[in-house]
Design a protein that fits this description.
CATH topology of the largest domain in chain A: Hypothetical protein af1432
Protein name (chains A, B, C, D, E, F): HD family phosphohydrolase
Oligomer: homohexamer
Keywords (chains A, B, C, D, E, F): Hydrolase
CATH class of the largest domain in chain A: Mainly Alpha
Largest sheet of chain A: 5 strands, mixed, barrel
CATH architecture of the largest domain in chain A: Orthogonal Bundle
Distance between the termini of chain A: 54 Å
Largest interface: C-E, 32 and 33 residues
InterPro entries (chains A, B, C, D, E, F): HD/PDEase_dom, HD_domain, HDIG_dom, NA-bd_OB-fold, NA-bd_OB_tRNA, YhaM_exoribonuc/phosphodiest
GO molecular function (chains A, B, C, D, E, F): hydrolase activity; nucleic acid binding
Helix content of chain A: 40-55%
Shape of chain A: elongated
Domain HD/PDEase (chains A, B, C, D, E, F): 158-291
Chain lengths: 321, 321, 321, 321, 321, 321
């Protein structure tokens, strides 16, 4: 039986399902008795809840970050929904489907990866082609690469987002390499596929999407270069100059020092990679922002990072009538 | 007989051809007699020259900016070429081919314009399609639009450069509109074709490429909007919202206030226009910079505006051997 | 009978008057019965309210943005006033005086406009004088121009604010034009009067002050230029150079690209316009900020945009005594 | 009997002690009767409270900023502690120990000052040595100098913080002056001791740490220079060049105009002062931020001003397991 | 007999006059004999010269910065003028009129100062009025204040420039104080007159305009405050708050930290002072730039600091004809 | 016989020694015969020269960047020295002492390295101690590490500069680690020694100091991390968390993204490393700038990068006397 999602809850119904225990706070009633306020979450959202009974037992058995089996009644409080929890039990992580608890790409991950592998399989440059054979032969890497999000918040911030973003860029790279003469198509494609590869270790995405210690200390650019170095060691006779040009694309793909690249793009392929990355990230980021906006006017709320409202189309007539 | 170009001159030869008189200075020999030092130019470069005889007559007859018919002997001075000019006569502008004196696109202008017109002819949106019929029916406009450069110095800074830049962007826009769902292809294409239309009046490009008074006072964004307003007045029933969205693309195509756009892009089409414009301008600008670099190392000289050297490919072995 | 204003309400009194329904939220009591929390507003401020009875009927009859006739008792809740609403009825917009619901200039609009018209009537330059005759003959324009605010929030953000700001600048412009020799007084005055003219369409100010779609897509600079273009078309033989210089003043009046002007001021009149505008906006903005601060110390709260506290005068003795 | 501190309060106990009345608001119960909500504070934190009885009498007797003797019962409300206040009486400021109400250095102020005085006593330069004799002979100055905090919030933001910061820098200055040849050790030390001297008047720190009117109007750099000028007037024959170099160190110690120094450091001693100041301030600021973080993960919360999380050491295993 | 100025020299004439020896370099002819190349200057410009004879004697007698009596023949060399110097003798500084060698205001210094003194004489505030009596009674100060330039290069960079700039601002301040209600006219005027008073010591202007050591180490803001402190000490009972407000105007008159003010303007008078200062400096700076431009097109050369060309009026017809 | 250095040449003497041929240009006399103008260099400076005889033979035998044995007569030309070259022969690089041709540290390289090795030998942390044993056992690395400069131009831009800079920082790090409690001394020292290790490959310093291709494409931060990765692979059981913290110090040592660090310092040791590096680089950079300034006033010329003049001490009396 599929899990009822937070976005589907209605006041008055009973719930018997698994959620992620996002927050848990002990409080006290006026009579001195304790109670628990909790926040329960899945990939569709969050709902507040309260535990009036068996507070000590439940508080001892579950902690923040646990998956919990909840039996509750859905009510309303201050204009929002509130679960009045009857019981709450810890559930081992291997008994839940993580896809229920983290936002996930709407595309077919298997097909996306097949398409990417097909692209590298058609490369003319034998060294680059061989390099990707080494990457794709590493099952642990492929599992992480096809599961990782592309970011914590900004764009493609969901399971499979890295692959979706990379494939979209790879398709664009193919178009652009055909449009401008003198572009090394294989090198550009290789740079696209590897530019964010460090994100598989920069981020954690088992139960929630957040930075790892390594990610905060080193950044995905540094981690990705180290991963590439390791794989390059397994490709005999990889030309040193080509290795430097490929690394340069990872190093410079943010476009400038101000955005975290120690060096700016200095080859035409690195310049193109930077532009394709910016365009694809920006388009995805704006679309998700617009899609998530529940308001019904012509404009989204102000986007603090991009410093503007986005236009959603003409709304009902307004103005100085 | 084709004109001998500055780039083809060799020491020891005689010259009998037309050049642009770029500079002219009167000087005096130790014996008190005057002489002229001149700079002669065409689209391939500049050469210094000196006039020893009939100085007063020649000085009175020609002025900077004139086309001049020159008879001279090519010599060497301080390691460079120097023309010793025997005679110099003013030539009316309508007797010279301006293409000899200004750098010009290497593409076929007629074919490029045909391709662009074909694109607008296939538009589904009847209002936009009609708008471009009005633009293309204006012969004076088409003559300027197909001749104008895209910039004074940065990119596509040559006769026909605006058209070359616009067509390249239009092709990219077609690809990108097919890649992302939900993009209004006709609107994007219209924005691409009109985004720099104000450059036909922002710049002058009769004998040299420079800003006009109007260009410096108003900028091509403002001029282009005024040109669009005028043509919109000739399209009956053009929907006001669509007109605003199209104008918004011109207004915002530089991407941010810091780059001269009063408003940043707020629709997906305006965002894409900005990215395509930046990519195409940057690629052209780097390629011209690399192409013009006569040095033979692995790197171009430092590019002051882009704040980096560009890599031209591995050179001879260097380093800490 | 004049409407009782929000700022005049006192606990314990009864109210029977029209307010703007700024917010309306449905909530539920512990017994499951619904109630409404509302925010009622007029130009003097806002007050919270609650509706306990006939909730469904009232909720169905009024929506946010409506003018509503309210019968209520004023009480206190959590240290603030709260209206306990007995009944609430929708009132058509044409039955209310908008000036009651939007902040309005304290100056006499008619007198201000007369003074401005007198100034343009005394212009020596026949073209500029004629241009303003065309503007002032457009009743719809004059109605909007004398009613528009100068901004949504920053300065002169009230009905009539644009006119008040413009007149203040015009007076300063007259002084400055007399102080510095060689300034074209009529041109400076014309630039002052037209610099923000696009705000009549950039903003809506019927019931609240906010941006219009056109305003967000194009900005008042672009809109103002288009309005000027239209009026210039009605002045025969307006000299093109003068038109460019006048447009340049609108284009550049924000002083730099960073503040939204595509070109910086390049004539002495444009430079002066920018300085006068900055001074008058800043003075008004600080004064309103200080005037609205209810605290009684020597300093206003921190002004986030201007990044400082403002000094209000010596307060009671403090310090390291 | 030592005062019970806020951080030591436990639910269920009775309190009979002095606190600072940080906030006081009048509210009304549903029955119309008034009550007071208060915030009581000392150097260890704040606690909310409520006064149900004798509200009018108490409200008339105490005002915000007063020290108040409180008799209360400690309870819980919404998961936090709440004092139910029985009575509250104003206490004159001279009857409390200010150190109970403001955070204070953990070092021994007397020993720190002795060490600093010992350093100036060993100076070789007779003029600088004499200058500090004049400073140290001013009892009022010494009292303030040894009591002042170094900042309102950023670093060493506690009583005695200025002295602690200055001494730490003085010790570092001694090391650095020995490390680099050609540094004027006495001048560097003098600059260190005087660089923040204006903070004794820029800040008030009698009951709370905040800026004074003079501090906000002039800044500690300007105030410190004026204080130095006054003392220099009491040292006969102080060499003018040396006075300028010493003043220059105060003027430039923030390193650049962007950080509030009218001139950047232009002597080696001023450069070193700036670096030592930045290092000591930064280290203290980070340490206090880490020390105050109650969370138990590997990272502090995001530090808005320094724009990063800080690493607190490896926590429990997380990540993509 | 008035001195012939550099700007008046013509080729072929003889010169017998005093100049400033701006540069002096020893060189050697092919035959091994030494010669001197020199640069001679006065307030109208510079001219190159050469000394072929008596080189050793002359070289020993004059040094850079000296006033020198020159006998020479004016010739041409490489298209410019060149003095062939027959003899050159050092002239004591007190035998020359410094006004011949430094650019000087075109206004009457005595009249300007009288007008300023008249303004302070009419002040209503007895403390401020008395303060200026103290300033004006200091003859040495008045001599420097009426002679100092306002800057080295940017604006009013000539003898008497500080006074000219200050008086212009004082007149504007009077207008503005009358325009806005609630401005303390005397305080604003006092701030205007004193805001740049530190320039009399920040700059040297005996033979050339340059920074003094004190100026580079402390800046005119700091020096001016110290000068004000000294004079305030001579006014009995000057109110401390007023002293702080006056100092605040000097401290903040550059408008922001980025421009060298440790604190931004926080009173209405300080805000106005900053705006008036910026406007007057900018207008003067642009006018001098335009006035010095010898070119005859519509535009000045690019102004590096202000990052634009300035428009000088419509030139001959150009463009895409 | 030691080589005569450029700085020691005097007019009239004969030279018979090896120089670096920095520049070589072919030119032609008026009679059509070719001659060579050359620039000859060693670590003390450059001198111009000319070759009148056997031009073709010499031109064919030597190229820019060669070491050349020169026989010449030293003369003067236009106020500078000029070598009239009789003969010039190419010399193999292995027959010259590179130290003659590149600026070199004035410290004893062997002693500096011994001192650094002694420091790592005293480390308490066995893993870090072992890591440095691996580094020091790599002879090729040590040779490069003790020879590399620390920069191309900014600071320590001479052979041995990296070692000198690193040792100076290591000594400071020891002091600072003792001053602040809770600092991991070994980790800080390890970070200091490795922070710039990538410079041994970022720069070339065989004949001149310049960037390598790898340096420009990747930057020394990236190269250094790769070098560290390789050595870490040779230390069994190096704790992963410690490896990340050490890498983080390299990653973040420039302090912020704007200066090329992908992540800012997030541990107290990384923060200290950044401060010590900035202080030592800045001090060395200023000192070299002051030391190279031949002028005799109180101030250096304007330092473009640091945007100020530096004070060199009181000069002769100047000013408004």
């Amino acid at each position: 039986m599929p899990k009822p999602f937070v976005s589907e809850l209605v006041a008055g119904s009973a719930v018997d399902a698994v959620f992620l225990l996002a927050e848990r706070n002990m409080a006290h009633k006026k009579d001195g008795n304790p109670f628990l306020t909790v926040t329960l979450a899945d990939r569709t959202g969050q709902v507040k809840g309260v535990v009036w009974d068996q507070v000590e037992r439940i508080a001892a058995a579950v902690t923040e970050g646990d998956f919990v089996h909840v039996r509750a009644q859905v009510g309303e409080y201050r204009g929002g929904l509130q679960m009045v929890v009857k019981d709450m039990l810890r559930v081992p992580a291997d008994q839940v489907d993580p896809a229920d608890f983290l936002p996930t790409t709407s595309r077919d991950v298997g097909k996306m990866f097949d398409r990417l592998r097909e692209m590298t399989g058609r490369m003319q440059n034998p060294h680059l082609k061989r390099l990707f054979e080494v990457f794709w032969a590493d099952d642990e890497f492929v599992a992480a690469y096809t599961r990782a999000p592309a970011a914590k918040m900004m764009h493609h911030a969901y399971i499979g987002g890295l692959l979706e973003h990379t494939l979209s860029m790879a398709v664009l790279a193919g178009m652009v390499a055909g449009h401008y003469s003198g572009v090394d198509r294989d090198l550009l494609l290789a740079g696209v596929i590897l530019h964010d590869v460090g994100k598989v270790r920069e981020l954690e995405y088992a139960r929630r999407i957040d930075y790892t210690d390594e990610g905060r200390l080193l950044s995905h650019i540094i981690i990705g270069l180290s991963m590439l170095d390791e794989k390059l060691g397994q490709v005999p006779d990889f030309p040193p100059v080509q290795a430097q040009l490929l690394k340069h694309m990872i190093v410079s793909h943010h476009g400038s020092r101000a955005f975290g690249s120690p060096e700016p793009p200095k080859t035409i392929e690195a310049v193109l990679l930077n532009h394709i990355d910016e365009m694809d990230s920006r388009v995805n980021s704006i679309r998700e922002y617009v899609a998530k906006d529940p308001s019904d006017g012509s404009w989204t709320p102000y986007h603090r990072l991009l410093e503007r409202h986005f236009y959603k189309g003409p709304g009902p007539d307004t103005g100085n009538d």
